[in-house]
Amino acid sequence: MEYLRKSVVVHEKLETIYLDYAFWQFQVPKRKLDTVEGMNDFVAKRYLASIVDINDTEVANLLNLFKEIGMFAHKRKEIYKLYEVLEVFEIMSTIWHALYYSHPIWDKLRNGELSESGFIAWVLHNYHLSRSAGVTASRCAAFSSRPDVRKVFLESALEEYPHCEYYYMINDKRLGITSDDVKNYVPLPSSIAIDQQMLRLAEDDWLAHIMVAYFQESTASYYKQCCDFYNQVETSYNLPGFFESWKGHIQLDIGYGHASAFTDILKSQEPISGKKVESSLKNAALAVQFIVDALDDILKLNMATDNLILRKPVSILSENAYDNFNDGISATEVLSKLKSKDIFTGFIFDKTRKISCEEVECIKIEIAFAMCRALSYSKRHDEILYIGKLLEANRPLIELRNNLDVVVPITNWAAGVSNFLRELALIPSHFVIGLSLVCLNLKEMGFNYKEIEGGNDYNSISYLMNFYKFSESEASLIVNEMVQLQELWFKNISTKIIEVDVFID
């Protein structure tokens, strides 16, 4: 037995000690703590559970229960077996489930307290989760370093990719939205962050990807509770039968046995380093934090107005905003569109958002990596030359990243922004516009951005911003991407960072 975890909240009231953990609350009379040797020090997290006098049967049983439900931290090890990692993960995921299911949104849905905009935002967030499932699974099937992981996620991708159409597509006159509204609805910033964190894990961290995939699929074990919840929501919003396809999807997941397919990989004696285990838990925790943050996003839309808000994509078509469509729209002109105030309806911004110097240094390292990625996808002569110059100027940051034992963004804000730029890098011209926008943001917030551009001797970004030309439709697509980047940059992301507290030295 070990110390109580940091996530166990201990407080006292009227001669009773309360221990809150995940879904449980334990009450212990203070006199019991005073009479059992070592118990006060243990509950205060000063000493190991082993100092407690377990000759007292009640206390011994209580400590055994604490251990069974994961209230103890594990002794940090240099090497784990994969089956041990599964045990540690299941302890950690208990807190994740508790954090997710204790969110206030669920009672608001049960009681019909979300506005029409909030309800639709929640429904379409679930659609977007389904739409991205096959995509992220396919990324892992293509890029994972492990054949067994590629095989499992290929099966997942082939099963999941059409489910957004079969189970979560909405064309319901009762809601007043069409299937086109659903397809075009701009995902919530945290919905995008979930998707892009999963894409990052699919390429870089197979263990974390399995953890989050298992966490998401294991909600199928709450099938009865989910059905009861959906029935309550249908009644509260007068939408009988609306969630029948959602219930069918849960049944399908149970039949496929997705959750067990993921955990089967971990049921082995294969060794893995303790540093890898801990970094994977941190990466997985970032994804789970985004899943919870998305519920906060929904509540922000809910509070905005009682009128229906559909997050429609921005369009610059037929606005006569540019006189030289035949010559193409430059990247500089595309970025200038963001200054228009009418594009922000239904979008979530908080211009008072503060970021730390540590967060900025973190994203600078990740920007350098994204430059390397962008160069690898570059094709045109000038594009290769000038993105190469950017990478050359930021070489020290790339070398710093390469020398790190593990690469985990320090906050969910840093992860959201850096992952977005990482995905933009697949289309170098879009990445350069995103990079220019980041430099503008840093400048406005008083941070040094010149080193990203390569210093005063480099003009790569300004050259490329005039080199690239876009069609009307592609320019509209890029404007939407930049609005989404601004949402991630200025969104007041939750400060409830999930701590990986299952290890002690």
UniProtKB/TrEMBL annotation:
Residues 95-215 form the Thiaminase-2/PQQC domain. It comes from the Bacteria. This is Thiaminase-2/PQQC domain-containing protein. It comes from Hymenobacter wooponensis.
